[in-house]
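User: Hi! I'm working on a homework problem where we have to compare a predicted structure to a textbook description. Could you give me the structure for the chain below?
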Amino acid sequence: MILCIETATTICSVALCHDGKPVRVMEKAEEKSHASSITVFIEHLLKEEKTDPGMLDAVAVSKGPGSYTGLRIGVSVAKGIAYASDIPLLAISTTEIMYQGAKQKGRYDYYCPMIDARRMEVYTAVYDYEGNEVKPVTAEVLTPDSFSDILNKGTVLFFGDGTSKFKDIARHPSAHFFDSFSISSRFMCSPAKKLFDNRIFEDVAYFEPYYLKDFIATVPKKNMPGNIK
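Assistant: Happy to help. Predicted structure tokens:
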């Protein structure tokens, strides 16, 4: 039994998985509610399944890239559960989680998850149908020629909350779009089981999210000098 936590985007999602399949899922699309919702979701799932943290075999978390605040919340909760219950911590790339969900859409030569990173930038990677990473996770500033090397090789499914940016400028006939895609912790069950079976565990004390880019704090305009009355 593995508890899966996904908070890398605007979706706060928690799943209880057994033998690589979701047993029960709770999720909510509201980024600013992650901190207040995640522990409530976990408590509810465990109660519904008559389970407590000590009965879990492991806890898995989306490690990034994604929202700095969302990742920090999810990883903090996962590490707390792993430490208190003395169970393994598993970490899964957010883009791999997205691939696991998008491949259910149908068969394409390549799958390209896109996470909104503000302006015309996205966090992205490229996977083939078998799930092999053919282009590593990176921050990509989109242009009409982006991914032309992959698009020239075969059909590509683009999906995620950053996809609309590329859809507006992409002209390649091999580009396909999954507009209604939504990330979910249910997509973590299979890769989490694989990590557990292969005993690929994280160091609970030292594990940190994969932010990809350094966090830069900004000051709201209303609080800047000259705007304070």
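For your comparison, note the following. The beta strands are 2-6, 11-18, 21-29, 58-64, 89-93, 110-116, 121-128, 133-141, 156-159, 175-178. Confidence is low (pLDDT under 50) at residues 215-221, 223-229. Good luck with the assignment!
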